[in-house]
User: Fold these one by one.
Assistant:
Number 1:
Amino acid sequence: MSWKRLLLSVISSSKKLVGSDLLGNQYYERITSGGRIRRSVEMKRIPDEYQMKDIPPEWERWLRGISKSPPTNEEQEVLLRNKLIMSQKIKELKKKEESTEPEHQKVTMTTKATSHASSQSYNEHETAEDPVSTGNTFQPGSWKPYNKQ
């Protein structure tokens, strides 16, 4: 084994701590023997208890190589503060929505289903020469085939 390979294997086998998130997870970076950068995370929770929310989105971007540099503590604190403000606004909006019932829900429906598709004349065979429409209902006119006589 050449000294270059030995040096590369020593360097690549060690992982470097890049940072940690506000949940206590630690993020590492290491260089493989092929020269590629591999990023990993050591979870504070037991791996069996892992949930999607355990890795913040800013660190997820870094792990996947979307962002080149890891998020700073200041960035993480700002993002957490914005997330808390947004969740508070959502709660207030839901509470306001529940307290004020929309006008369209207060109106009672007056249509009564008496037959297929609420047709008013399901069994009656009333036909008109011309189609009749009163806005809410439509009654088709009668159709008569052309007589050659």
Number 2:
Amino acid sequence: ETLERGGALAKICFIIHNLPKRHNIMDIVEMLDKRHIQDTVPMAPLQPSEEEKRRHEKQGLEITSISNFRDFGGRRVDRPGLVTRPRMLFRSGAPTWASPQDTQELLHELGVKTLVDFRTTFETKSFSTAARFEDNFFNFSIKKDESCASASSSSSGHHDIDRIDSAKEDLIMEQQQEGRWTRFRRISVAAGGPLIALQHSLNKDLRASIQTSEALEGRKHYSIPLINDHYFFKGVYTTAPAKVQMQCTIARWALWNDKVGALFLMRHLNDMGLFEMYRLTLEYTRKEILTILRILKNPDNYPIMIFCSLGKDRTGMISALVQSCLGVPRDTIISDYHLSEKNLEPNMEKLKKYFNRIGLTKEEFVLAPSAVMTRLLEYLDEKYGSVCNYLTDIGFAPEEQEMLRTTLLVQEDHPQVQAMQETAATHPLHPEHHHHHVAHLAKQPIETGFPVS
């Protein structure tokens, strides 16, 4: 209460006076170290490996500038005679700097209609004036506050609030239809549905210079960060020891710099490890995950491409949830997750430097260990009974899950599946390019993208 009511000097005096004796002044000095509060430049674009390009060729994909890209299609499920439908759902790392050839492939050959982007605004920061792949789509982002949005509109001149209702998208619950909106920071206390409004923004000057302007009206780019204030301050912060919590408090009220506090939380996250980072994501971004799933269940949104910066962690978790809902065998889901490690291997040193700089120094953060995904899925089994029960618990009802299956599952003799099989048969992978899971390929057709008999 004192911190909220007092002035700046009162806040500083209050904090210093109440510092526990076991913490010395070096705790404060450490936070002032410029190395800890400098801006971290977003990661440079990553290029796919030669092996990944060959895998794309086998799948009939001509993607050469986007890392960790793949098609969900052709995977067997627990329903006899059905497989996941090809050319409907894709996953990847950030496609921002896709080449003109890849842009042509994605927009016109594959017909990608919707992007679902799990990155933060910091990760999407760009210092280049060059056109980005995302500029080919209308952008919809999480709307924090009505007044904030209005201020943004008046100052920038290119934000229009678009209150999406069920006539446009089947993803907003009754609270939005009645005109009631929630602040993003209060998402945790919302009940009965994903109290998430989407802000429609378009830079009209940029629209004139986008790479491909035709059919823009039908393309949508949903920005739904899975790392946000609620994740950090309700998830990571509450699990942190008292010293870390104190450091974050000083950073906010004495230094007026949440970046410093975020660094201490990242260090704490590093101590907890990759599995705990995933677990906190599933527990503290439930509303965001629900909104993502409601975008995916709508057949009008397809083909869809989901991605984050690397296409490994956030994309890996959402992919595991979707595949579990579809009935893809768990071994296949885990191998698909681990494939990201293989795809990112040529960029490993670059990734290590970046993760070290933001406080994640454990090697597992740059990898995709099968054991971590195995443990995560087992955690959902233990706490909720199954992955599908977890989806029900966050609000994605069984009938909605069935809609997702109807959209993404087809008979194995479907023409698209047969075409994928024929393409794979004419582009065999060289034996030396098979990864160490080759013994499981008969069960897990992720190398080829089609069911292996």
Number 3:
Amino acid sequence: MPRELITVQVGQCGNQIGLRFWDLVLREHARHNKDSVFDESMSSFFRNVEIKRGNPINIPVGDGRNSLQNLKARAVIVDMEEGVINQMLKSELGELFDQKHFIKDVSGAGNNWAHGFNYYGPKYEETLMENFRKTVEDCDSLQGFFMMHSLGGGTGSGVGSYILGLLKEAYPEVYRFTTSIFPSNDDDVITSPYNSILSLNELRKQADCVLPVDNQALLNIIQTIQAPLAGKGAGITEGKTKEEKPFDKMNNIIAHLLANITCSMRFEGPLNVDLNEITMNLVPYPDQHFLLASMAPLYSLLDLKLQARGVDQMFKDILTDQHQLLCVSPLRHRYTALGLIIRGDVAFTDVAKNIKKIKSDIDMIYWNKEGFKYGLCNLPSLGQPYSALCLSNNTGVRSVFSSLQGRFDKLYRRKAHLHHYTEYIEVSLFEEASTSTSDLIAQYLELENVKEPSFIPRLSLIHISEPTRLLSISYAVFCLKKKK
């Protein structure tokens, strides 16, 4: 049975990421689907639509042999400014999107979380819910919502937070994953610390799994990729001749993250992993669902045709700082769980050997020493013979929260720019969000400092006297006879 995924693209950043994601996914399926048929793999992210006299009709997967007619993305697209959405419609992928699932305004949220959350959210609640209802009805077995947004601005943070609450209330059994772009320390939005902390509070409450990414880490990755090309001219790109926009390279890295995390649901492999297994195995406590993501090799993330590195080196690279999508050093902190999704031609013996080495290299919390989950997908990423995605629950993520909290406190102590927010929300919400962040930091710190007890008491055997044992047996026999 198909397992569908619906993307929710919110704000300028979310929609720019979305555009790169859909471009990548289409190219992946084009390489895999040589017969141009609508099969279960295609149905994960797409609808196959036949248009007769202007009335679109969904073509079911059936036996997986129906030809492709008009592909439509399973996406709900939200922005309170028209600019990026208009660019999407004019792009080569414009026809991929169903304009009925566009929710837009003109003036924007003005880099104000409260404006997005308490004004635009309620204003478009009915429209949003109707769009989600229709999109969900087009699915046979919906597995999850994937939200793409940033925390620094107003729409992605405020409206994005509001949407997460709507989805949790309306579809509590459907997984809610987010790719959330955290602002860097030199972010040019003055109020981004407010927006980020207020969003973080909602992500903690409303999301099932958050994949935090920050712009500085993406820039570091791009520099790492381009270093081997220094002095050799521009890198050769695959299938792209037009000029790229400033953030395209960074968004392309995030697109690979989303493609890799869903590959096991879309393509065959000896050991598939779905969203349920990710949340079940990598989230030991409900609040601590913020997963560090890293990928290796890096060269194909920008489609550079560089020499492939060895499998063993790939597993080694995946743990290093240079391959993280968040500015964190995971090896300096404690892991509570770790997952790997391997794509391409990698022998099971190589996987087992390298996982054994990883176990010896990292500090895994004592009560979850076997907290490893991995999946194997036969289809490699574009431009690579093999690749790996690592998702880890690591206490180092608290350093990112602490940095945001410090920047928030500097503004909030002086009540700077607060009047822009109190037009829409109460000041108490700032206190709640700040307390929530401090509590989350404390939870991760506690896990990092916990020591394995020297003695773990075992359950002792309880001696049952002979009369008691005979009485229990007699009662059991009586119950069986009565049941008959």
Number 4:
Amino acid sequence: CRCAARSPNRVWMRGRCVRLLLLLSLLSFILFYFTTRQSSECQPTVKVAPRALTGEERAVLVRERCEQYPRLQTCTYPTRGILKRLLPVPEKRAALCVMGKTGSSNWKTLILLLRGRITEEEAENMTYPHSKEYWVDGGSVQLVNDTLEKRTLSEHIMKDYYRITFVRDPLSRLLSAYRDKFTGTSRDRMFRVYRNRRTTLICDSLQILIIERPDGDLIPQKIYSSMEEELNRNCRGEEQTVSLAMFFLILIFMPQDYRDKILLDTLVNTHFNHMLSMCDHCRMKYDFIGTVETMKEDFVYLKEKLGIEYDMPQIHSTQPGVKSKQEIQEMWNDLPYTLKQYIYMYLRDDALAFGYQGYESHIDDSLAPNHFEMRTKCKTKLDRFSV
């Protein structure tokens, strides 16, 4: 201690300095003790992300949800549309129900390869596996020519086949469908024809829905007040365009029968309809329901279980010139909050059935009833296998 080096009373000052050092040491020890104790008691708990469901676990979940929520149940027998999307692979005793924007291009190419309808080289160069020429004469259940053979195949699928389908986060799927079908700038003539046809149909339909309003106020006032100007801007210029808001208005507020006709005429309805009804998950009781989000892991499992000898083909079917995902996200962010609530309501059954979280929290109980309610379109037992 040098603090009393020049003090006349060195002994007294030296004792004072020693006491000060002891006090500081004691305070340091106390501080160290409580700091160490607090850190040991308050170690942050490591939050382990919940394990993603396997495809078979998700299939069980969907069955439980279908029993718990009767509104999720659709047809008693597969409709013609489901038979068209049901692709059998007799060689593997399996069948896959495909839907737009759920990896269908990849899966269709793989099934064509497994069925021997294309070579590995053709699979590597595949750009459009949806062409009807690939699926005639038994490529899908609907395209089996012989009625008795079709009935037999359908019964085998229901009893003996390993039934598979893939789903996707409902909102992500619809945003992807809009991006691909309404923002592409492909030079392909047929794409331009269909895009222009879709745009004209939607503009004409919204003109009736928003301005003429034949059935009264189908659209809530908060949404309607901001849409007339947008409709005029996008549909009455030199080049018609369909905004994200216009796209969702057709899905949600257009009366069901008229909306189905619009979507059917645009030839892209499989990308927009509810997943739950398109493959009739409640009735079909699938053995495996995979997701786009876990496609890689799901395929590893299916490859081993079914003895698939090929890797999954990678088909990039998105049209050239589409808006970026970031641009689509910004368009979503700019939508009126009330419209977003109706969108979440429109998608909540799919979200509920397949275990996607967060949709109910965005829905206000005060939202008015509207025309998007799912309506069952079932064939009778006798004609369910008709062409």
